[in-house]
């Protein structure tokens, strides 16, 4: 049997995606009586949000004023959340303008943080290690929907953003991030899904 490596890789990727989707669909969530039910969306809305996120990211990368910045983009029911660290107010305002002009963006939330002070190459390397550690810690906690949370780090300051189901998930994400070695502080920009 002669299987081409490209076809094998494609089939493995599709199989893994199906398994992940099936696993996510069968996941049970424990709620207490005082915990509100998570906000639901349709598959169509989630696909639309993914398209809007991709369009905004592409527009930011194509824009000469914003393409070099590490701006995180999350979308929920057409609401675009911009987060990350930018050099100044001009860059943040420009990113907001670009996002608002993107087809499908109903509203844009500014959760970007203005950088302070100069960052060295050592800081950048340390920050990427901290970001990786925080992401790993979030993934390992089953009470947190970590795939809905973006992580950005600058000089040990971790910014969490995205959309989750409830305040408990936000509190757990903040506590988990604070417990990671090297984290100096945590900025919470996570919103509850509506």
Structure commentary:
- This protein is of the alpha/beta class and 194 residues long.
- The protein has 2 domains: 75 residues, 2-Layer Sandwich (Histidine-containing Protein, Chain: A); 78 residues, 2-Layer Sandwich (Histidine-containing Protein, Chain: A).
- Helices cover 44% and strands 23% of the residues.
- The protein contains 5 helices and 6 strands.
- Strands 1-2-3 form a 3-stranded mixed β-sheet. A 3-stranded mixed β-sheet has the order 4-5-6.
- About 8% of the residues have low confidence.
User: Helical element count?
Assistant: 5
The helix/strand class is alpha/beta
Q: Tell me the Rg in angstroms.
A: 18 Å
Global morphology: globular
Order of helices and strands: HHEEHEHEEHE
Question: How many domains, as an integer?
Answer: 2
Strand order of the largest sheet: 1-2-3
Number of strands: 6
Which percent band covers the strand fraction? 15-25%
Mean pLDDT: 79
Task: Catalogue the unreliable spans.
Answer: 19-33
Largest sheet: 3 strands, mixed
Q: Please state the second-level CATH architecture of the largest domain.
A: 2-Layer Sandwich
């Amino acid at each position: 049997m002669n299987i081409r490596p490209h076809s094998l890789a494609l089939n493995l990727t599709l199989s893994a995606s199906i398994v992940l989707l099936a696993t996510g669909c069968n996941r049970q969530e424990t709620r207490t009586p005082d915990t509100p039910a998570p906000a639901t969306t349709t598959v169509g809305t989630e696909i639309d949000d993914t398209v809007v996120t991709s369009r905004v990211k592409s527009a930011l990368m194509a824009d000469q004023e914003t393409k070099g910045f590490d701006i995180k983009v999350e979308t929920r029911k057409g609401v675009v959340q911009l987060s990350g660290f930018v050099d100044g107010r001009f860059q943040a305002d420009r990113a907001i303008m670009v996002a608002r002009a993107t087809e499908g963006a109903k509203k844009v939330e500014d959760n970007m943080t203005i950088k302070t002070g100069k960052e060295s190459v050592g800081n950048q390397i340390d920050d990427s290690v901290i970001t990786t550690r925080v992401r790993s810690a979030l993934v390992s906690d089953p009470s947190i929907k970590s795939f809905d949370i973006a992580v950005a780090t600058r000089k040990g300051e971790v910014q969490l953003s995205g959309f989750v189901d409830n305040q408990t998930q936000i509190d757990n994400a903040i506590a988990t991030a604070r417990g990671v070695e090297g984290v100096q502080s945590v900025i919470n920009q996570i919103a509850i899904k509506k």
